[in-house]
Specification:
- The chain has 3 domains: 1-83, no CATH class; 100-320, Proton glutamate symport protein, CATH 1.10.3860; 322-354.
- The protein has helices at 14-24, 30-35, 66-83, 88-109, 112-126, 130-136, 138-164, 168-174, 176-185, 188-203, 207-220, 223-239, 246-262, 269-280, 292-320, 322-353, and strands spanning 10-11, 36-44, 54-62.
- The radius of gyration is 24 Å and the shape is globular.
- By secondary structure, the chain is mainly alpha-helical.
């Protein structure tokens, strides 16, 4: 933790970042969870004169706490399920709210091609010398893009085909709107409504699966980010002439996976969690500046792969759960039918008694 100079705030260790996931499950309130995330930081200890001793402190960060909202949503959903008719107005309210959100998303998505063009143009204009940046980082950039392409268009489709026996590339075409939106926004959380709509309307995935699996996937299934962080860590280590043996490569793999799980679904969140991996290798956090020049474009590529991974996963779960979903639907239909019969009989009995 010694930076050789004045004390300053540092990112926490890997174990603290993993524990942050557990803490995020139970936010202090729902409004807070909609606005802030909590992350552990190492800060100078005011009670210790030794400047190299740092204290652990939890700080608020801008961003939606998806895990906390998900836990609260599941709890509310289970309560509504148990209350049945009593909570039906609340269930209708949430259904209407979801329909409104999807309709607004549809309007916004119609303008997304123009928005994507200006977002990318803005990032290109900010670069002082695009040719020099691409030239110096060409091999690194190419390695990440090829790796993401292999994972997104070969590995994931193969897994999907083996488990569902369906054409994966037809599926990718059906999800193209969500993938394009992910590339433009560089945020899996911002793309979530579009991903849900494509999966339900274009693919035909049951909304119970899509609306449960996709929010979870947008938080913990960031496979594109994990791949990017592993390659970036190896590249930076090679630039600093750090010898990477098998043990260190395994550590990079594990840490990159853990860091990706803890990354927020916001633009360039992977660059923030990269600091965890650099700390593990004993490299200064400032070394991230070696790759930041092209990170804006790689961020869009890995976000698109993240969304593809979430979509493939939800579709596989839906395919493997067809019988259970049909059984649940039939049970629910029977219960509602019996409830209506009981209600009619009750009203008839009241009429006879009067």
């Amino acid at each position: 933790m010694n930076d050789g100079g004045t004390s300053k705030v540092q990112d926490a260790l890997t174990v603290d970042s993993l524990l942050d996931l557990g803490r995020s499950l139970f936010p202090p309130n729902l409004v807070d969870a909609c606005i802030f995330q909590y992350r552990t930081r190492l800060v100078p200890n005011a009670s210790e004169p030794d400047k190299y001793k740092l204290a652990i402190e939890t700080q608020k960060m801008d961003g939606t706490n998806i895990l906390g909202l998900l836990v609260a949503s599941v709890a509310i959903g289970v309560a509504i399920l148990h209350l049945k008719q009593e909570a039906e107005p609340v269930a209708d309210f949430f259904r209407a709210l979801m329909a409104i959100a999807m309709k607004i998303t549809t309007w916004v998505v119609r303008l997304s091609p123009i928005g994507v063009m200006f977002l990318v143009a803005h990032e290109v204009i900010k670069m002082e010398d695009l040719g020099t940046v691409i030239g110096s980082l060409g091999k690194y950039f190419g390695t990440v893009v090829v790796g993401l392409a292999i994972h997104g268009f070969l590995v994931l489709p193969t897994i999907y085909f083996l488990l569902t026996r369906k054409n994966p590339y037809t599926f990718i075409g059906q999800m193209s709107e969500a993938i394009t939106t992910a590339f433009g926004t560089a945020s899996s959380s911002a793309t979530l409504p579009v991903t849900i709509r494509c999966l339900e309307d274009n693919v035909g995935v049951d909304k119970r699966i899509a609306r449960f699996a996709l929010p979870i996937g947008s938080v913990i299934n960031l496979d594109g980010t994990a791949l990017y962080e592993a390659v970036a860590a190896v590249f930076i280590a090679q630039m600093r002439d750090v010898d990477l043996n098998v043990g260190k490569l395994i550590v990079i793999t594990i840490t990159a996976t853990a860091a990706a799980i803890g990354a927020a679904g916001i633009p360039q969140a992977g660059a923030v969690t990269m600091i965890m991996i650099l700390n593990t290798l004993g490299l200064p956090a400032t070394d991230i500046s070696l790759i930041i020049g092209v990170d804006w474009l790689l961020d869009r590529c890995r976000t698109a792969v993240n969304v593809m991974g979430d979509s493939f996963g939800a579709a596989i779960v839906a395919h493997r759960s067809q019988k259970e979903l049909a059984r649940t639907t039939e049970t629910r239909r029977t219960s509602r039918s019996n409830a209506r019969k009981i209600s009619v009989l009750g009203q008839a009995q009241i009429f006879v008694d009067t």
